[in-house]
Amino acid sequence: MNNVLQDVRPRALSVSELNRQARHLLESSFMQVWVEGELSGFSRPSSGHWYFSLKDRKCQVRCAMFRGMNRHVRTPPKEGDKVRIRGKVTLYENRGDFQIIVEHVEPAGLGALQQAFEELKRRLHAEGLFAPERKKAVPALPTHIGVVTSPTGAAIHDILTVLSRRCPAIPVTLYPTTVQGQPATAEIVRAIELAQTHGAADVLIIGRGGGSLEDLWCFNEESVARAIAACPIPTVSAVGHETDITIADFVADFRAPTPSAAAEKVSPDQQDLLRQLKDRELRLTNAARRALQRLHTHLEHITARLRDPRRELLEKAQRLDDLEQRLGKSVFEHIERSRVRSTHLLQRLSLQSPGKQLANHRELLERSTLQLEKAMQSLLAARQEKLEHTAGTLNVVSPLATLGRGYAIIRDEQGNILRNAPDVAVGDRITASVASGSLSAEVKTVSPDNTWL
């Protein structure tokens, strides 16, 4: 009895089979997922792989990020960080653990900020706010420099240090504002408007020191971008470090990688100016000396040209005699050339006489007539020979030639040509066409073979 019951029981799965089927079901149901939560239990063994859990107030899920993926993460996450991950849902068969194989990890909220950054960048670019043709040139020698930044930050210190070293004579006006946090956006816009109202600066540096994406976010706000774009003063964006990119960098007339670089861009080096001044002084002195030398040489030349008026008159009279002789010679040569040309033209006219032309054309016509007659005779002879050849060929294949050799064309009463003896019956009337005329006969016998040949 027990053996019978045992035989009808369903086959039990092994643990390995169950886990394998569960893994296949999970991987086919979830292609790729984004999950956000708090990082917990982070570990990084010697293999280089990362293992951690993501949790919220109610649940948690285990995660694994292998070395080939996590080496692309610039800053490894740490315990308690809020992160967003992208990965594939699966099951670790050996322990039966439900887990996510992570392919990408980023701080929570960074994705939304980056998306907002890209959306605003795309929209402002479509409006033409980044177009090179709308950007104003930064003056090479500004008379007044304006700075929109925090009065207590490192940026203003770096800017003033560079300006005092390169060209301390240029006045600088600070338009103070906060450069981080929620109120910073409106304050930066007001500071830019204040610089326009003040009207002193002919170039405006807008920026701050480095920081995270969240710290620099006020320079990615649309109102700040539009205020920079609408500013009539040439603007230089100097936000963060060289690798930091903000919307203000795209809208400004010039983007400097750092505040110090912005100060170098807008300020000339006083040492270079002094060298240029000395060089121009030397060039001006040399130019003045060359001008005086040219005037002195010109004066000497004019002095040498001053002569006795009577000598000038004698030279003019001699010149007049020379021109008179040249004129007489020129008139004689012109008359001689005209005579020769007239003789040449008369000769050409004689050669072009209508009588001679007519005689030449008449001779040409006679030659052409003879050639035409010969050509026609040759053509007619060739055509006659071709006609005779064609007629001979036609006669060879003509049915009349066949009848001339003793053959006949037999037709039935309907006029159809008879080719086979079984096509008629005894008593039918037939007609035979011969070389000359036709014969009418009545079929007496029909033989299906050619025994008569």
Description:
This protein has 453 residues and is an alpha/beta fold. The protein is built from 13 helices and 13 strands. The chain has helices spanning 2-8, 15-29, 67-70, 110-127, 154-166, 184-198, 222-230, 247-251, 259-266, 270-305, 309-351, 354-397, 399-404, and strands at residues 33-43, 50-55, 60-65, 82-92, 97-107, 145-149, 172-176, 203-208, 235-239, 254-255, 409-411, 429-433, 438-442. The strands form three sheets. The protein has a five-stranded mixed beta barrel with strand order 1-2-3-5-4. Strands 7-6-8-9-10 form a five-stranded parallel sheet. A three-stranded antiparallel sheet has the order 11-12-13, with no helix packed on it. Helix 5 (154-166) runs parallel beside helix 9 (259-266). The two termini are 107 Å apart.
Q: Which characteristics define this entry?
A:
453 residues; five-stranded mixed beta barrel; alpha/beta; 18% strand; five-stranded parallel β-sheet; single chain
Short account of what is shown:
With 453 residues, this protein is of the alpha/beta class.
